[in-house]
Amino acid sequence: MGNLVGYYEPKARAGTLFVIKGTVKNEGRKKRSGIRVKAELFRSSGEHITSKSVFAGNVLSGDDLRSSPKEAIEKTMANRWGDKLSNLDLGPGKSIPFMVVFFEAPAGIEEYRLEVREGE
Questions:
Q1: For a Cys staple, 100 with which of 20, 46, 66, 86, CB 3.0–4.6 Å?
Q2: Which has more pLDDT, 46 or 73?
């Protein structure tokens, strides 16, 4: 994973969001499809807050994040093959973007952990 950034989006139509964006790279020797990213949020005390899994290849613009209802955002993140089939047959050494969106994000998120879940 690379190019990681986590931030609050406080004035979204869907409420206060916590967003993690980055890229995931296929470091295997064969093509992969349906790659998932699991994200976990923690407080400074190490207390686990919540976790969520999404499919890679689905990223919304800042304007779309702020203006879309929760259902539309969740539908986008659930697209197994990614926007424009970017999560289908990802070749060795290739990267695609991902975005994890947490709704009703609590204050005090100090840490997040990410894990790539093997695709097909």
A1: 20
A2: 73
pTM of the model: 0.90
Residue 104: predicted pLDDT: 87
Q: Phi-psi bin for 85: left (phi > 0), alpha (psi -120 to 50), beta?
A: left
Core vs surface per residue 56-68: b (16+ CB within 10 A) or e: bbbbbeeeebeeb
In angstroms, the Cα distances linking 56 to 10, 37, 79 are 24, 6, 9
CB contact at 8 A, 82 and 90: no
CA atoms of 101 and 93, how far apart (whole Å): 26
Give the span between the Cα atoms of 44 and 112, in whole angstroms: 10
Terminal CA-to-CA distance of the chain, rounded, Å? 18
Burial of 70 (0-12, 13-18, 19+ CB in 10 A): middle
Number of Cβ within 10 Å of residue 28's Cβ equals: 13
